[in-house]
Each structure stands twice: as structure tokens, then as C-alpha cells.
């Protein structure tokens, strides 16, 4: 069937999850709670790393940046998902759609790079502890984080510009946000070259970041295995394993959606996998990376029982 070009398109219709419409309020409640937990956990981490001098280390510098990134990343899509689940408004303006597309992929790319930088930091701390403070100095940490942001924001500019100038023959997006494949499906033009460009861009970002992250964790595990103390070995392994599981889930879901040849045709499966790295991994990241840590727990107690009461002028409990 010949596609008809729609002139002056002003908005799109997000189809979301039609299968969930019968119990949409239950799904709304689950996602809303997870979103609040994500924002709360990450705000707590950012706050305590700013006020507690014991957390002024490269590891917590990276974690606080990851927390800030997660707040932005989830806020790009989850509010839109919640609106869709209410059933009141499924439309999104053309400008908002393109803006959402850009920031979703830019922030996602930054997270891939930042996870790699964090794994490199842990690799140096475990495998080269004597030179760790010398190598991971303040300027080096800031340069690594800034590089992650610059690479993530810049690599998605050209694809976004091209998509913003496409001609569209439809308005119904087979997703709950403005994702790449559903947008390209609506185009009247031949997008094979753009699909190839985006495939290689996504492959380069995801596979490079994942390979670097996985490689550093393998070296960390090899070093941990030489620890003579069984208790110390178990504690290090449990921490490393929890980090690695979250990384595998995040990169695995992202790779399955954007780095496989038939990804552009499996819209329903892509929706499910997208929910994994948009909703699920951000809510567990604060717990896995920070909130289980002893120093973080002490900092939270200090914030709750000393800093906040002191700010309110009601005294505090000595820790």
C-alpha cells in the first residue's frame, strides 16, 4: 500500500501497552511507586555525598553522578508512561517527541560510558590499590565524567537532526515513548541508511562499554579470588556479583533492543525490554551501588538524626 505523506504534522499518538488497559491503574501504581523510590534513593545519595566528608572519594563521586543521571533518565520517559496509563492523553507534540528521543538516547549513552568509568575505578581500587589515589585524582575523575557527558550528548545529535527532518506518513507510534524503530516505521522515506547508521552507533556505544565493563569485572573477580580470608573473599564477591548482575541486566536489555538485526520489527518485545532498563534497573541502582554500604548507612543516619533536626532548630541525637 502506498504511503501518504502527512503535511505539517504537529503531534504523534503513543499506543503504549494496550494489553494493560484493563488493569492500567494497577500498573500505574507499580510504576509510580518505583519512580518515587528511584528519585528518593538518588536524591538521598546526592545529598549525603555532598554533605558527608567521609564520602568524598572517587567511587562516591561517580555514584553521585550516576544518581543525577538516573533522575534525568527516568524523568524523560516515566512521566509520559504514567500519563498514558491514565488513559487521558496519548498524544505528544512533534517537538516534544524529538526532544524526548534525543535526551533518552543521549542520557542512555552517557550511562553506558559512566558505568564503564565506574568499573574502571573499581578495577584500579581492587587491582592496583597502591597507585589508586595517584591515578584517580580529582581532575582525572572530573575529566572522565565530563568526557562521558560530552560523548553521550554529541553522538546523538546527527541522528536526531535527521529524524527531525523526515517526512512522516503516520502518527501512531507503537511504543510508550518516542523510540527509534517506531518513528522510522512511520517515515515515508527510505530510512535504510539511517537504520544502518544508528545500528553501528548503538553497537559501538553498547558493545564497547559492555566489553570494557565486563573485562574490568573479570579482572576484579580474578584478584578477589586470591584473597586468603574466606570472609573477606565472600564479602568482596557478593558486592562484585551484585554490581555485575545489574550491569548485565542493563546492557543485556539495551543490546537486545538496539543491537540485534530484527530489533526494529519486534515492537511488543521491545516494549517489555525497554521497561527493564527504564523502570527496573534505575530503582535498584541506588540500593546495589550505595545504600547497602556501611559508610552510606552512617551518612544517612547522620542526615536524618543530626543535619535535618539541626537545620530545623530542634536539636539532634548524638551518633
Explain what the structure shows.
The chain has 319 residues and is mainly alpha-helical. It has 11 helices and 3 strands, in the order βααβααααβααααα. A 3-stranded mixed beta sheet has the order 2-1-3. The protein is globular. The model has no long low-confidence stretch (mean pLDDT 83).
List keywords for this structure.
globular; 11 helices; three-stranded mixed sheet; single chain; 3 strands; mainly alpha; 319 residues
Q: What characterizes the major β-sheet?
A: 3 strands, mixed
The total count of helices amounts to 11
What integer is the average pLDDT? 83
Query: CA-to-CA gap between the ends?
Result: 72 Å
Would you count the extended β strands for me? 3
Low-pLDDT stretches = none
Secondary structural class: mainly alpha
